[in-house]
Design a protein that fits this description.
heterodimer, A: 608 residues, mainly alpha, MetI-like fold, 72% helix, globular, B: 446 residues, alpha/beta, D-Maltodextrin-Binding Protein, domain 2, 10-stranded mixed beta sheet, two-stranded parallel ribbon, 14 strands, 44% helix
Chain lengths: 608, 446
Amino acid sequence: MQMTFSPQANRRAVIWNKIKTFFSKPQNTILVIMAVICTFTTFAPIVAIVEDTLKIHPGTIDANLTGRSSGFTIVNYTDLFTSTIAKQNLWNPLLNTLILAVGSCVVSILYGGLFAFLVTRTNLRFKKYLSAIFIFPYIMPQWTLATVWKNMFDSVAVTGNRDGLLAGLFGVTMPQWWCAGMFPSILVLGLHYAPFAYILIGGIFRNMDANLEEAATILNTPKWKIMTHVTLPLIRPAILSTILLVFGSAMGSYPVPHFLGLTTLSTRYIEINDRRAGQASILAVIMMLLGIGIMYFNQRSLKSRKSYTTVTGKSGQTSVINLGKVGKIVIAIILVLITFFTSIFPIISFAFETFLPNPGDYSFLKTFNTDNLTTKWWTTSENVSENGMYGQKGMLFNEMIWRGFGGTMLVSVACALAAGVIGTLIGYAVSKKRRSKLAGYVNSVAFLPYLMPSIAVSIAFFKLFSSGINLFNTYWLLIIVGTVKYIPFASRSSLNSMLQLSGEIEEAAIIQDIPWRKRMTRIIVPIQKSSIVSGFLLPFMTCLRELSLFMLLCGQGLILSTQLDYFDEMGLYAFSSGINLILIVTILICNALVNKITGASLDKGIGG
Amino acid sequence: MKKLLALVLVALMVIPFVLSACSSTPKKEQSEVQKIIEQAQGMSLEELAKKAIEESKGKTFYGVGNSSRGKSALPVFIEYLQTIDSTYTLEFDWQQPKNNKIFDQLTAESKKTVGTYAMTLIQDGNQIESKMVQTGILDTFIPKEWAEAKGVSADKYEGYLPLQTLNKVFMFNSVGTKTFDNCWDFVAKDAHGQFMDIDSEIVGKNFLYMLTKDEYSKYLKDAFDKLTAEEKAYFQPTIDALAETAKDFGLGENGKYALAWIKLWVGSYNKVEDDGPICQNLVDASAVDQFGLLVYSKLRSIEESDTKSKNNVKVAAYEDNYEGIGGYGYCHYLFVTDNSPLPWTACAFIAYMTCTQKGFEAWGKDMGGYSSNPKVAKENEELHNHAKGGYVDGENKFPVKNDRGYDWWVGDGKLVLEDPAYCAKVAFTVGSWIETLDKYTPAADK
């Protein structure tokens, strides 16, 4: 039988074969699927929030100005940018936001970088302890340091309200700029994000080729010149990475500026949302645009970073600077003291707070009378409203708190698994097709949510999922948002590790006709286990104490961080402190368990 | 990257307009919940209870409110239902969103065919009207017995159903020697009262709106007249400067006094996140000369210690020579959500809270909250004797806790009462003006 093929049928067959060939490679299939998923999860919320900026909201200023209760208008834009209160609703918060973000970057880089230098390049004592304790502020919810700051430095004489510990016990009052506003906000966020700098800069210090500095020393180059011309350029990529990570995160922080009385775009969003819902959405869009701008900056810095790869490769030699017999101990003690106040003191303070009769009532410290202590916040087993319990049972018997704990664990585990698997697959596929446009697109789009401020992402998803498919106040919504936000942790971690992996290893398995699933589970994942586990661990840890991302998406009962915020707002500091303790202990146990089982740990993986 | 940016920008500009085509139109037909409410309004509490048992046995009841005490009221309600059916069980969850989030939450929930929350206990009449009632998100249910106690019929009653009126009162720390005998003292030079931020708790903004109503601006004018010449001289320029603005807003002859007080208050109050912490601050021995405007009942949360005591504070309006407004009264309203998953149970719970002392007990056991049902209010006072709330073993140990009652507060106490209609009327005149005022930041002061 003779078969004839028309040119058209031939062309179709060729295209079909091309498609089949394309999808026969798992990395291509992964990229296409991820491109679709990431496009939707990244752009749909953005579209929803932009739509909201143009909507008329009943009972708000846009309805009043247009005389309509529904429909679309640009009045929100004109009013926000040009009204007499544009300065207080837009320009001042924007300026504060930028200063806060830049300041936090500076503090985190200086503190984290210096710490990294001392730990990795000197003969400092207590390195292991210092390295572990340094990441505590990142583990704790970011506003915990802010509340500790207020409890410490508030005073009737300066901030009004009541005396904090320093004023109450020692009569010491600090100036206003120290107690509230920009300075403490920068310091608290800088300390919170300093572990980013520590891990990223420390990683380079640890692997840096010391021959370069030694060569400069032999050539009689002054120390400051070695630092500015050799050392700093070497760590420049890590500094840039830190800036990108900290800037985006600090810019969208809500709780820290809120507690410390600083008006930023995120706090202003919450403040004006009741009367100016559409204008509040514009603030969120501005935060998102800043995030996109950072991403653009990131792309450019990534390009320039390529030129550093030749000098950041591993060297067999590392030089250790001798701090001297006294210096190595004195500096270590100073660092132990600093980390005590940033890491240990908050925990002690939280524990102490849960035994005070009234929130912030430090009578015991003044009198040492044990009548001024109580266990009611833990052991009250009945629903009472007297004595400040506000109808809450003690923490040991409080169903809401333990249900919230269960919810937090559920969301964190689900986000870690989903973000970890998706991120690992993205990292794998992008590393395999690193020169293709599709890989570049997926890599960028998957990373974009991380650079957007948490509160802006939260607002966007709130707008998207509070109409049509309504997932408001469900674990599903928290898991989706958490996954989208934390995929970059896993994708970056996975991409970096996959890039280190020679293609020959997988090629050998392909020649042996070993299926992709087996190649992944038996070869690739086991080799890069540590990095990949970090990609799961980071979303888990971050999710446990996340607030800005979830606060608009659910009621306060669903997870612990929203409960913590609720109790803090109510002034029930014993409960919020107790929840803080529960979260910190949970994170430490999980970190230790994962470290024991897989060898991965948080201080080895921050920043991916 | 440039393509990605371009894509983002195009998406931002175009898709909203595409989506606009899908926007929904408001419904006009009576909803299922409204039909149930119509029937429920003709039923007694016991009949409603039977319907509730039928509907919700073994299920979970979700409520949301501005008061945390809904959580305490629900178990008592369940006990009541169990007196009718001993096998009745009901799980429950009560949430109290902060920062005005309750309106966002209810709006988001309203998009579901069947919502999560069965009912709500909500404050801020202004926002309730424009965002919740006009949009059909919340429905009013008037219990038969409540209407009878008020001398009206349920179907004829107009307005929302208030559970109670709460009062925020001026209190000051009395450890020092400073006294506050006139409401203008709270806005005097270098005075910084502690107050929940008006952008955080919107009823605070309503309080300021209400000051411009004729009867309350007269209170301010009368109090102003009692000031010394020196004190008057400090306030007079501000009052005069706002005379034109008051006219522009169509306020009465004393409107300028109200605007001046508002301007000085917004420019001086020290914002605190909640009334609980304000109370904790004021009762501290270190808070010498501090004062605040806070929910009266927060005093219940103070445990006596070496540094904190209820005797460290005084209620300004209780002082013999005090002049002017004593505080602000606002209502907690009860509504059934229009997509309530348990409408009968919601109606029964609402009826139980508003028509029985036991139902109101969660609020009634403390001072500063007054049932809207005169019968319940009377029974509650007979039971708890809040007028002598500060007595312990027959001794007047905490005079500040001796609540003089609703009638005293709205009369002698010169409580400024929230009127949702008036608030809505001035929200975009006086309200927009308030937004332009500079708020106090301690940094600028030191």
